[in-house]
Automatic annotation (TrEMBL):
Name of the protein this chain belongs to: Methyltransferase type 11 domain-containing protein
GO molecular function, one term: S-adenosylmethionine-dependent methyltransferase activity
Domain of life: Bacteria
Coiled coil residues, start to end: none
Residue intervals of the Methyltransferase type domain: 38-86
Any Pfam family: Methyltransf_11
């Protein structure tokens, strides 16, 4: 990663520990924490166009009310030829992302979508990324990959929508 700029939303602790001393690493979140060294709003990223070589957004967009704006901002701050990695909980039984109707009580949205989630992504998620300009490909993980990486049953790859990562280039 030497000499590269990486924007990592809601960084996971092992990655933060590994990369935090790299001067180009920005671990962004809505507030400073033990694993965030910068306040970064995904819908209003305060970096210039094309600043980052790489971007990681793992299980963030399902919490963002305007996910399309978040995707646009990620595209904007990524360098041409840069790579972004996105993952979201994905409901493979849904052809399209489900957005709650206006006025639905927050408790009902949470009951349907899960803790602090504001939508249920369907199989159209890669199309949403492509609509903001990304070239999208997928890395798919098999049940054997889950065994190899010791994922527990409660975090089963397909049930949590963790069976794929969307690799996006600008």
């Amino acid at each position: 990663m030497a000499g590269k700029n990486l924007l990592h939303f809601s960084a996971e602790r092992p990655f933060f520990r590994l990369w935090r001393h790299n001067p180009g690493y920005v671990a962004g979140d809505i507030k400073i924490s033990k694993v965030a060294n910068a306040v970064v709003d995904i819908t209003d990223i305060r970096f210039e166009d094309g600043h980052f070589d790489h971007l990681i957004c793992h299980h963030v967009l399902e919490h963002v009310p305007d996910d399309t704006q978040g995707m646009r901002e990620c595209f904007r701050v990524l360098k041409p030829g840069g790579t972004a990695f996105f993952s979201v909980p994905l409901d493979h039984s849904r052809p399209e992302t489900w957005e709650p109707p206006a006025g639905m009580p927050a408790a009902e949205v949470e009951r349907i979508c899960g803790w602090d989630h504001v939508r249920l992504y369907g199989r159209d998620f890669p199309d949403k990324l492509a609509a903001v300009g990304f070239q999208v490909s997928e890395i798919r993980f098999s049940p054997e990959d889950g065994e190899r990486h010791r994922l527990t049953e409660e975090h089963a790859l397909d049930r949590q929508g963790l069976d794929r990562i969307f690799v996006c280039t600008r």
